[in-house]
Amino acid sequence: MLTTKFCLPPPSLPRQSTTLLADLFTCLCVSDSINMDKLNGPARLMIVSDLDHTMVDHHDAESLSLLRFNALWEANYRHDSLLVFSTGRSPTLYKELRKEKPMLTPDITIMSVGTEITYGESMVPDDGWVNFLNQKWDRNIVTEEAAKFPQLKFQSETEQRSHKVSFYVEKGHAQEVMKALSDCLEKRGLDVKIIYSGGMDLDILPQGAGKGQALAYLLKKFKSDGKLPLNTLVCGDSGNDAELFSIPEVHGVMVSNAQEELLQWHAANAKNNPNIIHATERCAAGIIQAIGHFRLGNNVSPRDVIDFSRSKVNASPGHEVVKFYVLYERWRRGEIANSEQHIQYLKKNSLPTGIIIQPSGVERSLQECTDTMGSLYGDKQGKQFRIWVDKLSSSQFGSDAWLVKFDKWELSDEGRHGCATTVLLKSKPDASDGFVWVHMHQTWFDGYGMKDQTTWLF
Asked: Where is the Sucrose-phosphatase C-terminal domain (predicted)?
């Protein structure tokens, strides 16, 4: 449960700014009640990605490719595009992965190999999809018939879902078991789909289920609402992702580390399809590569920019926030020069009377915090320290003010810490990127506060 308390700036701020902040924070509280349908029109881009070994690289200890994607998405796409995670994981294992890795919050989550569709952070289920899957499906008959095959071993209880029965089976027995079991279930009057992936996982689903059908269902809903995404990019690495690439008129990327079963499917079914590529980069880096290959939009992550002062990126509130935290992380990790120039660069972009209310409730000057930052140069060098932002949204008020709201996360040797953050930005021609920071307010998420808050600045 997140409890957020907004405070107005101190009397040192001009009266006009104080009134503006009061109006903005009132609007923010009202906006929280708006439903999850965040876009008024079609999404500019919808990315539909598998998680394990596609978006998430389990061989990347620091999740660098995932963090690169996160920065790209929040800076350039979050405001007008849709992020969909399509995973074979059950809700239980999906939530575990979110705690383990620096993942963004998707707009839509497809779980349990396409048998569950949920919306938003609250993961509201799609009842229409549930009713559709109930046709010609009887879970009891499935388990009864599967019990006749000793080669099948039940997966954990968390992976057994209303419309998915999951087993492990050795690769050498997979094809034989799939054919025989399919015949048995057909004789019992069921219309099912059996999916084998990962060299060991066997899932039995209703015929209408699967990652591909779930995506087709979503696209049909968007089309009926007049909101069909302008472009859709599907991303995968294993056999249970093959259906995603079968959907007409989508772009697709098989990441470089794709498994043989998916590559074989591609060779047999889609090798001449120019809209599907086999990336040369692993996991999330391959997704970024595909965005550029298909010219779906900007594919330069702020984490790939060495010198922001020379970067040719159109200024936006989202990019401003992401850029700031990339610079802050690099400073603490000692990855940029220990130069007063960097401190002055940041101070130039904050109002001299600007205030930050830190998660502890302590009120400090923004420029004072920037000065303090100077003494922390390289204090995280050689240590675990990564920062990312999530759920970034911005609203413009008047001609020169933006209210930016996001979740800010830090992962360090001390653990994972996060807070809800709200920032007031104003446009200013002489600011380095056209924005100046006026006010910041942060509130800890329950269970993610920091005991020693002396080094928490922004």
From this structure: 317-445
**Average pLDDT rounded to a whole number, residues 246-271:** 93
Distance CA 424, CA 21 (A): 8
CB contact at 8 A, 337 and 327: no
Q: Residue 431's pLDDT band (boundaries 50, 70, 90)?
A: low
* Cα torsion angle, 149, 244, 36, 437, sign: positive
Q: What is the largest CA-CA distance in the chain?
A: 78
Pick the closest to residue 195 from 214, 215, 175 (CA basis).
175
| Closest by Cα among 349, 351, 356, 366 to 308 | 349
CATH code that applies to domain 136-206:
3.90.1070.10
Residue 8 binned pLDDT confidence (cut-offs 50, 70, 90): very low
Give me the percent of the chain exceeding a pLDDT of 70.
90
pLDDT confidence of residue 19: 40
All residues at 6 or more sequence positions from 344 whose CB lies less than 8 Å from its CB, including other chains: none
Convert the pLDDT of each residue in 230-241 to its tens digit: 999 999 999 889
pLDDT at 5: 31
pLDDT-derived band at 27 (thresholds 50, 70, 90) equals: very low
CA distance 81 to 229: 8
pTM metric for this prediction: 0.87
Domain with CATH 3.90.1070.10 in the chain: 136-206
Mean pLDDT of 60-67: 96
The per-residue pLDDT for 28 is: 39
